[in-house]
Amino acid sequence: EVLGLERVGVDDSFFDLGGDSILAMQVASRARDGGVVCWPRDVFTEQTVAGVARIASVVDGIGDGIDDGDDGLGEVLATPIMRWLHSRVGQVGQFNQTMLLQAPARVGYDDVVHLVSALLDRHPMLRLQVVENSSGGWTLFVAEPGCVDARACVQPVAEMSDAALVGTRSRLDPTAGVMLSALWVAPAAQLLLVIHHLAVDGVSWRILLDDFNRGWGQYCSGQEVVLASEGTSYQRWASLLVEHARCGAVVDQAAAWKQVVAVPRVLPAVQPAVDTFATAGHLSVSLDVDTTRMLVSDAPAAFHAGVQDILLIAFALAWAEFLGSSAPIGIDVEGHGRNEHLASGIDLSHTVGWFTVKYPVALRVVGLDWAQVVAGEAALGAMIKDAKEQLRAFPEGMTYGLLRYLNTEVDLTGDDPPIAFNYLGRFGAPGPASVGDDSWRVCDEGLLFADAVSPTLDVQFPLMHTVELNAATMDTEAGPHLRANWTWASSKLDREQITRVSELWFQALNGICAHVRHGGGGLTPSDIVPARLSQERIDQLHRSHQIADVLPLTPLQQGLLFYTSSVQGGGDLYAVQFDISLNGQLDRRRLREAVQAALNRHPNLAARFIFEHLDEPVQIIPRDPVLAWRQVDLAADGVDVDEQIERVCAGERAAVCDITHQSPLRAALIRIGQGRHRMVLTFHHIVLDGWSVPILMREIFASYHGQLLPTPVPYRRLLTWLADQDLDAARVAWRAAFAGFDAPTLVGSSDQLGLGARGVEWFRIPAEITEALTELARSCHSTVSTVLQAAWAQLLGWLTGRCDVAFGTTVSIRPADVAGSESMVGLLINTVPVRACMTPATTTVDLVEQLQHAYNDTVEHQHLALNEVHRINGQGRLFDTLFVYENYPTDNAAPEAHGLTINDISSRECNHYALSVQAVPGGELGLRVEFQTDVFDVASICRLIERFERVLLGMTADPQQRLSLVDALGEGERAQLDVMSNRAVLGSSVAIPVSVPAVWA
């Protein structure tokens, strides 16, 4: 409806289809009308129907966090744009916007009056009264509904004429609360609406047009005309602006705005006594459909910019060429100003009023001649990227007016730039009730756009700017046209000069389109935040990669990259492999497509990791990820299947460890017999964690069986969250957690890379002990994970002879305030240290409580990189053992459909720690123990786990018992100690007392 398209796919980009910020508001508005709550910023961030659907909520009517609305009656505080208008010289009684509407064929005068009456009663600002107060300002007041007579506002005429138009405008009287005046031209079925600009803006016209269609539909059905509630009133919005003007974050922008205001003018300013609307020049021009269509879709998408950005950059280019100047071009820019993020629950989607914000920008566009612009050469693309970054560097436009007009403590003065630019967005797409000829729409004929929506004033009113461009995209039956209306001070410039600037602007726009048609565009530094790369480096990467995005690394990814890059060619450290046995009829092509579909959903799984010649490593997310797929047939007789499978698996593991040049995720399908296959899924741990694996597997087999899947949550969302965290607070917390910790807890060698051979053994803790662990955790108001950590700490103390020990554990980084984090696929974990201090008097309960308190103190800071925890505590490392409780959700039900079953899944992985234990929940607690074989042998690992089991038994038997009394040794180990210490001799009596010195005498 909003874009006026017959079909929009659920995964089509809103901006690729021609959307902009104003249309995003319309999408949110119409969604809310249907009981689906979303925000314009959601449309911006998600960009697709599927993405918005995932985070939107469904309600009955408007509510659930959205402003339920207020009546908007009484005094209204003047907003920055109103104060700006008041500061102008001249009478503003007829400062208006005008729109010509084509009515449905059967509309009569009484029908029009009925609809206009509904508009007047629904929208408070259409009943605004404006009077001068004693202090020289305006007092603004909104009267009760019903106080304005719609019939007096709508005058019927037989034909449109200049005299009728002038008369309609002259009837506006803000001091009497007459903000709307209209002409009804019955023979043409046209309605000319003239509304004082204090009560309307470009977005408001869209709201009013929707209201006409909604009201007309109700009226024709014999229903009462009930228009949508305004939500947040203009009155409340104005009050919020006054509060926000003194916000610290806004005040901090003052210095930046002062620099912009100080940019010298490139044209002389208007002379109020000479340069009026009576003497102004006017020029209206239109761009062809094909170029316009590219400007509102392909060009912004190519440069990851907005339509207004592209138009404004071309506008600056035209002026730089016209003036022959390399100086910055100062431009006064208008924006819609409906920034709903200002406060929670704000809903301006149905609010009529003048929300416009105006602010200056200064663009320097140099370094290329005009022939390069016209031809769309590479230099033009570089300039567009640079200008786009200049625009991104300016503060939020709204803050300029807040500081200049609402904060008396900030000295922000200066003349407006003499050149003005205003893009009003897209007009003409049919409204929600627009069907055939039975709808209200903006006229395609009669008044041109220049007259229809640009402000019109008393002809003696001084011009606002030396040159002003108002532009909009008008949807017609032939397609979209960019319409531009130029107004200028005739004492400063003549028609020939403005015509030349207009031609240069269109040439620049055509050049940009030519550049995009030849593959131009690309990312800029502001697109990849929080990653930090120069434009030059981004362009270099673009030449060697098809880039969709560039992301920084999570803290754990940085650590894994270090280990992987340090051992290149030295093994398969951190390669994770799942070997899945499939029985039954298998469609190999469909399985490959299913894995490819999963990769398309989560392109971060195909990231390339770049670190050479960079201050910080980054991961390159490919635009069209290609699955590394291998298919092997081992069903022939005489083949040593197991040996061949291991060879394939080893090759896959080696491949994923080359994370700079190859995909970190691969899949191999091995046929081993009739109806028997093995699917080997291999990935580097740097892209995927244990929580994500079940999600990924479910998606693969759901796609294989043709099931629909929800929209994936982008991995970027986690990286953005991480970048917003308070690192200083995290450092303070971890420094406090390890205060006084003077030596690392090490059980292995000094080899931090763990390059030696690895061994893996599995153990099970008896069911009765497992059950007792759960009960102990419950009685301590803690978790099984914490109880197991306490036992591991006790065992480490015995192993190392230390009472203050540390070990690592893995924590999930799936914040509740990151929408959809529970279904995100990627590496969303971190390794953090656990510290345990024990004394001879420490009991099980004491230690569990100690660990629980330590967890509570650091849980909000588990995102900090482990090497940073080491650094702030003055340690090269804190531990070389890892204990992990694998409590992430799993799907134990093996997929089975169409005769295909999974009857076995095995996995293989290894890390660099000397000793690591993964505890797996179940009726019997499972323990996967991985170890360096040059530090431990199998026998010592078995003895270690036997001791661990005895510690668990002692802890659960008497939680109040001192841990120092828990005996971890078995009877055989105690007997061995007796022999080693010659306990038989030590236990015999000595007949003649003798001193130690005497023995050696």
UniProtKB/TrEMBL annotation:
Keywords: Phosphopantetheine, Phosphoprotein. GO terms for molecular function: catalytic activity. InterPro entries: ACP-like_sf, CAT-like_dom_sf, Condensation_dom, NRPS_synth, PP-bd_ACP, Ppantetheine_attach_site. One of its GO terms (biological process) is lipid biosynthetic process. Its cofactor is pantetheine 4'-phosphate. Residues 1-60 form the Carrier domain. This is Non-ribosomal peptide synthetase. The lineage of its organism: Bacteria, Bacillati, Actinomycetota, Actinomycetes, Mycobacteriales.
